[in-house]
């Protein structure tokens, strides 16, 4: 049999490893800054692009897509070549994947702090960047599948199955969730509205966790853990059950993020049922990973690489037990919108993704650079300081979550809320925020230790060269099943059929949940009194989106006595039919805003944005003073309204033609209300005098950004009228 010689491409792996470490430091540093912003709200006072609302999506995108994303590519490019006994299909596509991905990350790092965001969680990037992501991701997929066709190893190992499922599912999720109508170079509106947008977003959001943070890392686990332990995978049969059940069930679970919301009950219940089932395949994978170490536990004691991997798999098990538990309605009623969810997310991110990445780096670098790790002691220090950081981060957040839930729901004997002022809850959990910041500091200290250790290791090693390998060419065999070949064994040598069946498995759940919600009108009962936003309110909503207000404030009052008492009438599906995108939020650092309209005066909102502590003593909300200073660019309002008409919002031609006049009329009313406050008049006159003396352009108050934002906030929740019994007066079934 002819043996062929070829070279593995190690340089592309090296590039992705460098990027992983660099973006890991960046993403974690931004996260640590955000943690300290809870303690020192005005630490970046007056700098719009360093405000919490703009940096929060930068942190999540940097950690998920830059740090973890580059780690995925590094591990996939290294393991795929060796599992398939072939160089990657195309060196050009490999380089295009690397440089394209880095450019996307840089675009995100620039655009998000500047306020260009769709505000959809884990999908905040605007439409030009979305297109770039799709192009680069397809290039990665072509490279992966192309390599399968030129492979010299007939059997497709389990890690390859997970890589395939990752490529297919992320492509489907990204494309469907990112369907948006552009209105300018960096502004778009989601084609979905309200309830439908929420379902599609969390179908994407939950499965971004499933198929970007989980399935590729399971593939890496199935490759690197056996390699590091020098042991075969514990159970081949369990890996088959694990793979197919996981990719089929996971895709249904998204609605558990929307329990007790305005989403139809049938969709919520489907999400709960499949989320509970999800524990079986998830723990099957964890058990398969941990039992692979049987007979190698003596190595775990001395090998930091295995230490990281053991804790990573354990973290995966903890997170995937907690996820189904959080999907139970009685548990979700307590946990949702609280810091419990922050703890849950970071168990997965810091332990599962972070530690498995660290273990992979410590294993890969010495081999690729043909040297020994500079310091095993430093690697062990990294492990212990990182583990302590995870504990000090997550445990206080669990306590904070329980504290929030108990205080939010507590009533006095006379039936009034025991903690009617939301800030009482905030003050109570400040010590937990301090501990979270300390835990995050320890974790990033471990990251810096890794970077130093790896840099010195690289300097002591050799230059990375493409690795010579040899394997016999793959001989053709019957495309049909051979004698004694099981169905799955046959499937494991057929990449096209494997891809098709994996695609079918992941499409079923999404189609059954999403198609009826979009197509069947009875899922979204309309309310006749709900009207489109006025032009000024629409502009104010875009400012609300730009500043990331949804990161801290929800707009979804759930049908609980405590929430109705605190915020007002619970949310109805028909209230959100003109919301492109939806803004229900996922956390309450501040109170819910769905019924904020008319609750406070225009002056209160003005002062609250200028100095939150002046209206809410002890608030940890930062000031948004640039909104008070900046002139509002409303030049695109007619284009925006026309785009909304294309999406089904019933603006008339007359309203669009008179948009500027309508805005000016509404803005003048708000300006007049602001003038009613003597203190405002004196500060406004001083501002005007300063502009005249300095020669700067003076902007009339009605033309400033704050006025548009006030118009939007004063509109929220005012469209429905409710009897004392809670019955909506104007609802069409």
TrEMBL record:
EC number: 7.1.1.9
Transmembrane residue ranges: 16-40, 60-78, 98-116, 128-149, 156-176, 202-224, 236-253, 273-293, 305-321, 341-365, 377-399, 433-455, 500-519
Protein's UniProt keywords contain Metal-binding: yes
Keyword Transmembrane helix: yes
InterPro entries membership: Cyt_c-like_dom, Cyt_c-like_dom_sf, Cyt_c_oxase-like_su1_dom, Cyt_c_oxase-like_su1_sf, Cyt_C_Oxase_1, Cyt_c_Oxase_su1_BS, Cyt_c_oxidase_cbb3_su1, Cyt_c_oxidase_monohaem-su/FixO
Entry's localization field: Cell membrane
One of the Pfam families matching this protein, by short name: COX1
Catalytic activity field: 4 Fe(II)-[cytochrome c] + O2 + 8 H(+)(in) = 4 Fe(III)-[cytochrome c] + 2 H2O + 4 H(+)(out)
Domain of life: Bacteria
Cofactor(s) the protein needs: heme b; Cu(2+)
Main location: membrane
Pathway: Energy metabolism; oxidative phosphorylation
Topology of the protein relative to the lipid bilayer: Multi-pass membrane protein
Record's keyword terms, sorted: Cell membrane, Copper, Electron transport, Heme, Iron, Membrane, Metal-binding, Respiratory chain, Translocase, Transmembrane, Transmembrane helix, Transport
Domain (Cytochrome oxidase subunit I profile): residue spans on this chain: 16-498
Location of the Cytochrome c domain: 535-667
Protein family (similarity comment): Belongs to the heme-copper respiratory oxidase family.
PANTHER family named among the record's database cross-references: CYTOCHROME C OXIDASE SUBUNIT 1 (PTHR10422), CYTOCHROME C OXIDASE SUBUNIT 1 HOMOLOG, BACTEROID (PTHR10422:SF29)
Protein name: cytochrome-c oxidase
Gene this chain is encoded by: ccoN
């Amino acid at each position: 049999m002819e043996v062929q010689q070829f070279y593995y491409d190690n340089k592309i792996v090296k590039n992705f490893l460098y990027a992983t470490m660099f973006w890991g430091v960046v993403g974690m540093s931004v996260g640590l800054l955000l943690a300290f912003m809870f303690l020192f709200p005005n630490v970046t006072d007056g700098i719009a692009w360093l405000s919490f609302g703009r940096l929060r999506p930068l942190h999540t995108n940097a950690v998920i897509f830059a740090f973890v994303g580059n780690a995925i590519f590094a591990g996939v490019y290294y393991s795929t070549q060796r599992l398939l006994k072939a160089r990657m299909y195309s060196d050009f596509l490999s380089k295009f994947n690397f440089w394209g991905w880095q450019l996307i990350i840089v675009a995100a790092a620039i655009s998000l702090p500047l306020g260009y965001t769709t505000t959809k969680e884990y999908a905040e990037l605007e439409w030009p960047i979305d297109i770039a992501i799709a192009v680069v991701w397809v290039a990665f997929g072509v490279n992966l599948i192309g390599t399968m066709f030129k492979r010299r190893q007939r059997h497709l190992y389990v890690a390859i199955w997970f890589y395939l499922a990752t490529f297919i599912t992320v492509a489907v999720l990204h494309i469907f969730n990112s369907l948006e109508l552009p209105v300018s170079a960096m502004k778009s509106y989601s084609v979905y509205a309200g309830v439908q947008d929420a379902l599609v977003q969390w179908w994407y959001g939950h499965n971004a966790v499933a198929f970007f943070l989980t399935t590729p890392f399971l593939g890496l686990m199935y490759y690197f853990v056996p390699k590091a332990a020098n042991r075969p995978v514990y159970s081949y049969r369990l890996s088959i059950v694990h793979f197919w059940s996981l990719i089929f069930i996971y895709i249904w679970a998204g609605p558990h993020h929307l329990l007790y919301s305005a989403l139809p009950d049938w969709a919520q219940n489907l999400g709960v049922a499949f989320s509970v089932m999800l524990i079986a395949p998830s723990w099957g994978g964890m058990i398969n990973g941990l039992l692979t170490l049987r007979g190698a536990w003596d190595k775990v004691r001395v090998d930091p690489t295995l230490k990281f991997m053991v804790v990573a798999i354990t973290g995966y098990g903890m997170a995937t037990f907690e996820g189904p538990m959080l999907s139970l309605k009685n548990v979700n009623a307590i946990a949702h919108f609280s810091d419990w969810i922050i703890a849950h997310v970071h168990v997965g991110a810091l332990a599962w993704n972070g530690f498995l990445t660290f273990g992979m780096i410590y294993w890969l670098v010495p081999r690729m650079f043909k040297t020994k790790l500079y310091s095993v002691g430093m690697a062990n220090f990294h492990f212990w300081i990182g583990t302590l950081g995870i504990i000090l981060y997550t445990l206080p957040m669990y306590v904070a979550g329980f504290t929030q839930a108990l205080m939010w729901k507590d009533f006095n004997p006379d039936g009034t809320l025991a903690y009617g002022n939301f800030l009482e809850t905030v003050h109570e959990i400040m010590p937990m925020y301090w501990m979270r910041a300390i835990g995050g500091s320890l974790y990033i200290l471990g990251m810096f230790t890794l970077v130093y250790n790896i840099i010195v290791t690289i300097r002591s090693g050799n230059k990375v060269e493409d690795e010579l390998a040899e394997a016999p060419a793959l001989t053709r065999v019957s495309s049909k099943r051979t004698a004694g070949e099981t169905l799955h064994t046959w499937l494991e040598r057929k990449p096209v059929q494997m891809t098709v069946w994996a695609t079918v498995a992941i499409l079923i759940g999404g189609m059954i949940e999403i198609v009826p919600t979009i197509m069947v009108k009875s899922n979204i009962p309309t309310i006749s009194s709900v009207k489109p936003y006025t032009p000024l309110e629409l502009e104010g909503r875009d400012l609300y989106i730009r500043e990331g207000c949804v990161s801290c404030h929800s707009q979804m009052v759930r049908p609980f006595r405590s929430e109705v008492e605190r915020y007002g009438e619970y949310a109805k599906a028909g209230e959100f039919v003109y919301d492109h995108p939806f803004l229900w939020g996922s956390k309450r650092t501040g109170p819910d805003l769905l019924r904020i309209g008319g609750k406070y005066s225009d002056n209160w909102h003005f002062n609250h944005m200028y100095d939150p502590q002046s209206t809410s003593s002890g608030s940890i909300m930062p000031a948004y003073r640039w909104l008070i200073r900046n002139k509002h660019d409303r030049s695109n309002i007619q284009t925006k309204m026309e785009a909304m008409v294309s999406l089904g919002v019933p603006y008339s031609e007359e309203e669009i033609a008179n948009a500027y006049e309508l805005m000016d009329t509404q803005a003048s009313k708000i300006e007049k209300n602001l003038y009613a406050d003597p203190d405002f008049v004196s500060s406004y006159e001083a501002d005007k005098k300063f502009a005249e003396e300095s020669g700067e352009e003076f902007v009339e108050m009605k033309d400033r950004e704050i006025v548009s934002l006030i118009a939007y906030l004063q509109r929220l929740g005012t469209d429905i009228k409710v009897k004392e019994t809670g019955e909506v007066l104007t609802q069409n079934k």
